[in-house]
Amino acid sequence: MTTNQFDTGLPSIRQVQNWIKEKITVEFRLMTGDLITGRVFWQDHNCISVFNANNEQITVWRQAIAYMKPLSN
Amino acid sequence: MTTNQFDTGLPSIRQVQNWIKEKITVEFRLMTGDLITGRVFWQDHNCISVFNANNEQITVWRQAIAYMKPLSN
Amino acid sequence: MTTNQFDTGLPSIRQVQNWIKEKITVEFRLMTGDLITGRVFWQDHNCISVFNANNEQITVWRQAIAYMKPLSN
Amino acid sequence: MTTNQFDTGLPSIRQVQNWIKEKITVEFRLMTGDLITGRVFWQDHNCISVFNANNEQITVWRQAIAYMKPLSN
Amino acid sequence: MTTNQFDTGLPSIRQVQNWIKEKITVEFRLMTGDLITGRVFWQDHNCISVFNANNEQITVWRQAIAYMKPLSN
Amino acid sequence: MTTNQFDTGLPSIRQVQNWIKEKITVEFRLMTGDLITGRVFWQDHNCISVFNANNEQITVWRQAIAYMKPLSN
User: Fold this and answer.
1) What is the distance between the alpha carbons of residues F63 and C3, in angstroms, rounded to a whole number?
2) Residues of E in contact with D3 (CB under 8 A)
3) I need a surface site. Which of A60, C17, D53, E30 has the fewest CB within 10 A?
């Protein structure tokens, strides 16, 4: 398992930061098989928090993310 | 896998702290596929402990959380 | 994934220590989906060791625990 | 779980760097069972980002990779 | 996820060391659902190596162990 | 989860090094349930790279290995 780094200079962290700024809808594929789709609200060392289409806040744990795919604006 | 930080200044930690204070019912989706729903009682570096609707205490390990979703007061 | 801390001052560690002292029967839900039920015998940094109803000793790895639920005395 | 190292001298990091340079198509098998196939765009400490055949950008988390297999140029 | 410690003073490490010395047959339940049964040959920081009933050597990674159960001599 | 160590003095690392030298065919059982069988080409801190029977190079991440079993020369 990876020991992730929350360093704002890293491309993976800047990419999420950009999705926040640009209000991009992103698909998160989780280890459970769940697909969480929404706009990213904030990220920190442990989690990425999104609002889905029903305007529900879902705080996804980084440890559970398999991949992320930006969909559109 | 993430090396989580238990730093009370982090949004992900403050969010849970707020759920404790506001007595919010929260849904925890676990890596096993289980859904644990309840009010958060305490959190520490390793775990988040909740009381479910049957007033059972369930201590969830952070390592097993895929996402968290606040439901209501 | 969490880097757990084995600090005897943490609520999650003291809770298990209390279950040992009070001879509480505890249910452990594992990442595999297994349910291990028994009385806790000892805990250390890596594992929690329990005796089940057949008096078999089962040493559960912390890394594999999704949640813990105390059942009764 | 492994604490991965992002050290550009490591064979596993240089291999990916070479796939970027040579525009190799690579198959990523994930812990979820997903197969992600594409050309690697960048890698950092946390993630490897690829473009698939539909030119979608998919950012795969290292923590979720089971194996990688280069397919062709 | 746990950052395991390989400290020979820990009960979980001494328990395995004792199984080696006493030639105990042990059942290992893995995250994959596999059951590996055999006598422990050696352990180190990463792995526990066992011989099964067919005298095959199987090197189990600690990261993959859900629980361990001693069966008999 | 385990924080693996890549220390060439460890039995688990030396065992793989020996398989490289002796051209042993090894079976890798992964967390996904996949079985990867082949000869080990190199290992580093993050990965073990093998050639399978079709002479395809497969780079397996240590974090995804449940167990390893040497088959034959």
Assistant:
1) 15
2) 3
3) D53
In angstroms, what separates the C-alpha of B73 from chain C's closest C-alpha? 24
- Which chains, if any, share at least 3 CB pairs under 8 A with chain C? A, B, D, E, F
N-to-C CA span, chain A: 32
pLDDT at D72: 72
Contact D1, B1 (CB under 8 A): yes
* Chain D: residue whose CA lies nearest to E1: D1
- For residue E63, the 8-state DSSP code is G
Q: Residue D15: in which H helix or E strand, if any? A: helix D11-22
Taking 50 as the pLDDT cut, the residues of chain F under it are: 1
Nearest residue to F41 (alpha-carbon basis) of F52, F56, F51, F31 = F51
Tokens standing for residue E15: 């328990």
Using the Cα atoms of residue B5, residue D63, residue D45 and residue A51 in order, give the sign of their dihedral.
negative
Predicted confidence (pLDDT) per residue in A4-24, tens digit: 778 889 999 999 999 999 999
B47 contacts B65 by C-beta, under 8 angstroms: no
Got the DSSP string for chain A?
A: -------TTSHHHHHHHHHHHHT-EEEEEETTS-EEEEEEEEE-SSEEEEE-TT--EEEEEGGGEEEEEEEE-
E10: β partners: none
